[in-house]
């Protein structure tokens, strides 16, 4: 209670804002406790009351007052084509602002598949050259929290770990926190016994679908997707894509958007 709250600067590049939408629904811990008691969310385009010059001044103030002490959380990514002109933020290319704020951060969080991998705006042929943030920030630790969006409790869990222990969570080779990304959806999926028994859905409305059999033959990517959906689940632990009847499209994996997660009927 006596520890000063860690300043967090939350920036938005090319994105859809659903990472923020996910974050504000965290139930454990409640997002209000994270924002009002655990961290000092000093800048966030979406959640802050300040606007215009008043808001932009916070960035310089944070760099000067908390040099090396603030966390830079990034939702979305910078487009590099045309000298960054496809995403202008506060009057300058987002890529410039991103690098400038990263210079004095203690660590950077890449929220979601946009910041971590590029995501849909980097889909071929990627005309704006949307680029994952670790390709432009080279000298800071980056924690990748992929997913489109990531699970709310995974996002607040990462922040809780960092402010509680004062260090980064243990990361895998791709920079993801092991505590949430070390297992595949398939490893803990409740439909797994049907996979093992060779019981598969073959049409969306067949008898096997009604019985809740495995969705592997319908294109489920659970066997190759590392995320916590089958354990932590969504909406406070209520459900996740497979439980709602559709296979996993691998939204936390690099390149999922170009690998045919969508289909026509
Ligand atoms: Fe939206 Fe997905 Fe990007 Fe998050 S990762 S901002 S949910 S497109
Ligand atoms: Fe694996 Fe998907 Fe089948 Fe679940 S539904 S057991 S994740 S293939
Ligand atoms: Fe995404 Fe698959 Fe989870 S589509 S939300 S990683 S079940």
Structure description:
Strand 4 and strand 5 (92-93) form a beta hairpin. The protein has helices at residues 18-23, 31-38, 52-65, 81-84, 94-102, 112-117, 152-165, 178-181, 185-188, 192-196, 207-211, and strands at 6-12, 39-44, 70-75, 88-89, 92-93, 105-111, 142-145. The strands form two sheets. It has a five-stranded parallel beta sheet with strand order 2-1-3-6-7, sandwiched between helices. It is globular and about 60 Å long. It is of the alpha/beta class and 265 residues long. Bound molecules: iron/sulfur cluster (2 copies) and FE3-S4 cluster (F3S). FE3-S4 cluster binds next to loops. It comes from Rhodovastum atsumiense. One of its GO terms (biological process) is anaerobic respiration.
Can you summarize this structure?
It is built from eleven helices and seven strands. It is α/β, with parallel strands linked by helices and about 260 residues long.
Detail the topology: elements first, then pairings:
Layout lengths: L5 E7 L5 H6 L7 H8 E6 L7 H14 L4 E6 L5 H4 L3 E2 L2 E2 H9 L2 E7 H6 L24 E4 L6 H14 L12 H4 L3 H4 L3 H5 L10 H5 L54
Parallel strand pairs: 1-2, 1-3, 3-6, 6-7
Antiparallel strand pairs: 4-5
The protein binds iron/sulfur cluster (SF4) (2 copies) and FE3-S4 cluster.
């Amino acid at each position: 209670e006596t520890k000063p709250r860690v300043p967090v600067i939350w920036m938005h590049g090319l994105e859809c804002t659903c990472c923020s939408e996910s974050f504000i629904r965290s139930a454990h811990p409640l997002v209000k406790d994270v924002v009002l008691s655990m961290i000092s969310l000093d800048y966030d385009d979406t959640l802050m009351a300040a606007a215009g010059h008043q808001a932009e001044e916070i960035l310089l103030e944070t760099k000067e007052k908390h040099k090396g002490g603030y966390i830079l959380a990034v939702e979305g990514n910078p487009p590099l084509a045309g000298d960054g002109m496809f995403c202008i933020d506060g009057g300058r290319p987002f890529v410039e602002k991103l690098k400038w704020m990263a210079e004095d951060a203690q660590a950077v969080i890449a929220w979601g598949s946009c910041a971590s991998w590029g995501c849909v705006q980097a889909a071929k042929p990627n005309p704006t050259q949307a680029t994952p943030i670790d390709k432009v920030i080279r000298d800071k630790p980056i924690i990748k929290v992929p997913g489109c969006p990531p699970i709310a409790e995974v996002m607040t869990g990462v922040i809780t770990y960092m402010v509680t222990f004062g260090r980064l969570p243990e990361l895998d080779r791709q920079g993801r926190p092991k505590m949430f990304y070390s297992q595949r959806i398939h490893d803990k999926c409740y439909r797994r016994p049907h996979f093992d028994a060779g019981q598969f859905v073959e049409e969306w409305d067949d008898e096997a679908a009604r019985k809740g059999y495995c969705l592997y033959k319908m294109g489920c990517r659970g066997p190759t997707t590392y995320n916590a959906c089958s354990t932590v689940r969504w909406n406070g632990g209520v459900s996740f894509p497979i439980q709602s009847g559709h296979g996993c499209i691998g939204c936390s994996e690099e390149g999922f958007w170009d690998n045919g997660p969508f289909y026509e009927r």
